[in-house]
TrEMBL record:
Pfam families: Radical_SAM (PF04055), TRAM (PF01938), UPF0004 (PF00919). Its main location: cytoplasm. This is tRNA-2-methylthio-N(6)-dimethylallyladenosine synthase. It catalyses: N(6)-dimethylallyladenosine(37) in tRNA + (sulfur carrier)-SH + AH2 + 2 S-adenosyl-L-methionine = 2-methylsulfanyl-N(6)-dimethylallyladenosine(37) in tRNA + (sulfur carrier)-H + 5'-deoxyadenosine + L-methionine + A + S-adenosyl-L-homocysteine + 2 H(+). [4Fe-4S] cluster 1 binds at residues 40, 76, 110. SUPFAM superfamilies: Radical SAM enzymes. Belongs to the methylthiotransferase family. MiaB subfamily. Residues 31-147 form the MTTase N-terminal domain.
Amino acid sequence: MIDLQLTDKTHDEERQGEALIVDAPLVRNGRKLYIESYGCQMNFADSEIVASILLDQGFETTGDYKEADVVFINTCSIRENAEQRVRNRLSQFGAEKRRNPKLIVGVLGCMAERLKSKFLEEEKLVDVVVGPDAYRELPQLLSEVESGHKAINVLLSREETYADISPVRLNGNGITAFISIMRGCDNMCSFCVVPFTRGRERSRDPHSIMAEAQDLFDRGYKEVTLLGQNVDSYKWKGNDADDSTEIEVNFAQLLEKVALISPDLRIRFSTSHPKDITDEVLYTIAKYDNICNYIHLPIQSGSSRVLELMNRTYTREWYINRIDAIRNIIPDCAISSDIIAGFCTETEEEHQETLSIMDYVKYDFAFTFSYSERPGTLAARKFEDDIPEDVKKRRLSEILIKQQETSLYRLQQFVGKTVRILVEGTSKKSDKDFCGRNDQNAMVVFPATEGVSAGQYVYVHIDRCTSATLLGTVVVEEPEIV
Ligand code: 5AD
Ligand code: SF4
């Protein structure tokens, strides 16, 4: 289940539990792999790398864990409830393992990195534990398990970007795909476990990113999302693809290179950081029609004091300045956010500051969370998690209500207008309807129309909306668009 409203989320717990089915099995050895992914888009992209590595070993994939020889669960540690879900799922796989003792169960990703060998000791049902930078070792680790040992590799790397591994597109629609452009994070936001589970930030070389985007376009894909924990700090230095001249590529330049592949290839990206997003990036978005006018710019809190405790390294005023720059340079740009309610010592007034900045920005969409202390983070070491659960819950619900109002307000601005969308396929709710997104990432649903199919760009007149979806009808003539 992909909730299409949520696909531009870097840490998107709502997408947890998706079974991934490979669309292109290679030479087979009769063994079947089942992968289930939780958490952020990066984890989903990583599962495509894992599948590629095991397909090269002759595996094929299955969407049913009961017929698998190897079950992998690619995990998320971002909040405690994410880890709890994974543990519940592991006990289900455990029941299967009791029925079929030959079944190999592996834990991959952030929880593997965070809990390391504890998994092998605590969870007798796990055979192999592999951190996000060790997937190349999977074939050897599986051999160790087959020879009767438990296997673990959770070494983090300063270089690994899996640049040369061509991801196997999993469960995709054949139209939109993720491209990982960097790994890790150097930011050390005090609440966040990611720098510990995914290691130091490193950028992938632009040549392999371009080659992957070009290959996707050649195979009929029409949209790529460039992924990184902090895409604005993308920086790569090395030799040009054609000669030995040394070049340096920043995120704005990378965006431009990918945009130039074809005007018919849409570009999205996630996640931007308020301290790093430059005017150069904004002007690049404005310059190319195929770079979508949509920026995910998490604020976390509207209070400068709380932002400092969070170690976000910007203030409320700085954030507002970045929003104003976006509005000036890309007037119709959609903006979304991540917001945390009830961070350590947050006062009622500071919570009100979060609500007031939401009024100022009027986000198109926001992912909202209640603060969850993560062991080992700066906040866990330095501050007391002192906001009572009921207060966190109430603040979170006030944030949610405000967001529902502004999401509706934003979508209402499209009603009566005509928008260009990329058709992604039939709608989740009815196969008589199609769905796709506009430039601003709003989901548009419209009755299936003759001559229209997935992968096409079409114009849709917006007749009405809910707080999450635009509803309309296809316009045949190419109109003046918004
Ligand atoms: N508690 C609550 N939310 C968190 N996030 C990250 N760590 C935590 C935490 N410990 C949220 C942030 C981040 C998003 C991916 O998850 O808002 O931007
Ligand atoms: Fe975590 Fe901050 Fe890095 Fe995002 S930028 S992954 S919130 S440390």
